[in-house]
Amino acid sequence: MKKPLIGMLAALVFAGATALAGASPAAAAPATHAPVTPAPTAPVADIAQASQDQQSQVAAAVNFAGTVALSNCSGSLVRLPKSTASDPALILSNGHCLETGMPGPGEVVVNRSSSRTFSLLSSTGSKLGTVRATKVVYGTMTDTDVSIYQLNTSYASIQSQYGIAPLTIAATHPAQGTSIKVVSGYWKKIYSCSVDGFVYRLKEGDWTFKDSVRYTSSCNTIGGTSGSPVVDTATGQVVAVNNTGNEDGETCTVNNPCEVDQSGKVTVRKGINYAQETYGIPACFAAGNRLDLTLSGCTLPRP
Fold this sequence. Notes:
Elements: H1 5-13, H2 19-23, H3 44-60, E1 67-69, E2 74-79, E3 88-93, E4 108-113, E5 117-121, E6 127-140, E7 146-154, H4 155-162, E8 167-168, E9 179-184, E10 189-204, E11 207-215, E12 229-232, E13 238-245, E14 258-260, E15 266-267, E16 273-277, E17 285-286, E18 290-291
Parallel strand pairs: 2-8
Antiparallel strand pairs: 1-2, 1-5, 2-3, 3-7, 4-6, 5-6, 6-7, 9-10, 9-12, 10-11, 10-14, 11-16, 12-13, 13-16, 14-15, 17-18
């Protein structure tokens, strides 16, 4: 996986560290920022329109509005297609970016208390303020590599206080050839490329990811870009979350994932990077942004 920044720097300083230790995110320092004060709730239609307007701007020229920087990774402020303005806001990142470390194979975190903070960015990448989580709604590295945090404030409050609308997670499978941008809130950098194809199984160390997105070579993402939203430039919607790449040409090791097709054939693509699709996430949330893994159509792994 794309090493969180702290782990990457640690690997450079401590040359004797193992590859897996270098990839592991360090525990977050105690939060010192005060929670965001909720602002008056705006009408649902206003937030929905603001989100659509922002995504139209993203489609024309992707920027950092709606993205966040974590202590060691990147992420984004996201809504589901049916989210409303008064719903508690959600942050999307990677499972391997969790402040408690990488979940093991088969491990699924659900509704675990968290007070993690995130830097909310403007369209130009400057910090607008700090938002705080109340819990990790969902986190895993099984089949996918995703973490979803719930904040202590609503979309309406964020829109009112900062002028930022969330990015929408698309509920449809991305298409090969789609023009995409990977927007790293940590590095304040945007990578442009296309969806090169899809990987039946992507194996990395002890983890296996299903139906992963493979980028064309121009998305040469680095450590710290983990958790970045992958934005469809035609719609402005999030279609995947950036998570890994083959750095050294090794086969199926940490930081060197390999592709495995349905017949078991293994392919290694040194220098190529990958993301995990997000279209399955909306089916696992009920009204009010409430996670419900028992919903019809929800295929996210259960605890």
